[in-house]
Amino acid sequence: MSPMKIAIAGASGRMGQMLIQAVLNDPEATLAGALDRPGSPQLGQDAGLLLGQRTGVVLTDDLEAVFAQADCLIDFTRPEGTMAYVEAAQRHGTKLVIGTTGMTDEQRQTVHAAARKVGIVFAANMSVGVNVTLKLLEFAARHFATGYDIEIVEAHHRHKVDAPSGTALAMGEAIAGALGRDLKACAVYGRHGVTGERDPSTIGFSAIRGGDIVGDHTVLFAGTGERIEITHKSSSRVSYAQGALRAAHFLCERGAGLYDMQDVLGLR
Q: Considering the entire predicted model, what is its pTM?
């Protein structure tokens, strides 16, 4: 089988460079394109320049050229960029691995609709560890359904632009689903002033932003006389890149449809 031709969006960024390195290290994949934002000072440079490697692929903002030659695009950028990639993918029949967070409901629906035409893995976090943690949280939530207050605390670097993180929200969705609740109705995002007593049916979220924290997430089940904490900490973006590459290979053998990392890892 020929190597899968993979393109990377946001290729000059920290995550983009990590993804390029992962593709270059994979004998079953080849770097087919590297997209960057219009006006980026890196446009025209070799995609591996910041890695100290020559790839023969230059950074470009030409969506049509990149999509025309790629089997799959991996995208960890911003919602507005992702919407443009979703449109291009449908025109070219290119598969998508999307790790973008901070989308509106309307943008998420656009991704869902596009999956009727192309294969898409759409997940808030591509890490194997995080996705196993989601399964642990479902199990824990069912056993701590009464008598335990649930709080989710997440911490990320100072440059992150959305809060709570997509991973924290995915954790909340997993817990709410296991409890038969609607997260939109029971989520509480931060507290200030005189809040009154805590509603036991709520799921609380707190966000910390500072320094170069890659991503820490803790779910607290606080009962009377005891508390249980389930924590995942990322020390590197490598786990995200490896998970995204695994998702791309998963799509290689599948047609149109919407998948997530639970599907990729066989955890469904």
A: 0.84
